[in-house]
From TrEMBL:
Keywords: Signal. It holds the Pfam family LEA_2. Residues 35-155 form the Water stress and hypersensitive response domain. Residues 1-25 form the signal peptide. It comes from the Bacteria. This is LEA type 2 family protein. PROSITE patterns: PROKAR_LIPOPROTEIN. The keyword Repeat does not apply. It comes from Pseudomonas qingdaonensis.
């Protein structure tokens, strides 16, 4: 192997090593976002679909802000898909800060029928499990995926003496 080729190979490998080390420094670990469903509001629907706005509280427990340019959601209730939604919202959640996002979701007639059939097999409607999956889009390496799960608590009737 000629001396020139060996020297070029060494310099190339050195540059590659330096670039990979600097890339690792840029891709520092982030703590996961804390996402909570804080409300659901009705929206006008069309034909055989229902529309709702799912309100999320997004908390950023990191030392750097998170910029996003789109949101996508999938909601499952009682182990069955119920609603999906996307939004082209964009913004930034500052370091150690939080924001409330409102994402419109659609519930098709088939999803409602599937839920009704599933509910017919359940003895108690209180405490149905839900799973919310989604992502905050932020470019090639900035997309943050999240999951929130829990149980839906139905409001309890109040005893009032008339």
């Amino acid at each position: 192997m000629p001396c020139f080729l060996r020297h070029t190979l060494r310099v190339g490998l050195g540059l590659l090593l330096a670039l990979s080390l600097s890339a690792c420094a840029l891709l520092q670990g982030r703590d996961p976002l804390t996402i909570s469903v804080i409300g659901i509001e009705p929206l006008p629907g069309q034909d055989l679909e229902m529309r709702m706005a799912v309100k999320l509280r997004v908390q950023n427990p990191n030392e750097t802000p998170i910029d996003y340019n789109g949101v996508a959601l999938n909601l499952e209730v009682n182990g069955q898909p119920l609603a999906t939604g996307v939004s082209d919202q964009h913004g930034s959640i500052g370091r150690y800060d939080e924001a409330v996002l409102s994402i419109p979701v659609s519930i098709t007639a088939f999803s409602m029928l599937r839920q009704a059939v599933g509910l017919s097999r359940v003895s108690n409607l209180d405490g149905m499990p839900y799973v919310l999956r989604g992502k905050l889009a932020g470019g090639a390496f900035g997309t943050m995926r999240f999951t929130d799960s829990g149980r839906l608590a139905l409001p309890k009737p109040t005893d009032t003496a008339w």
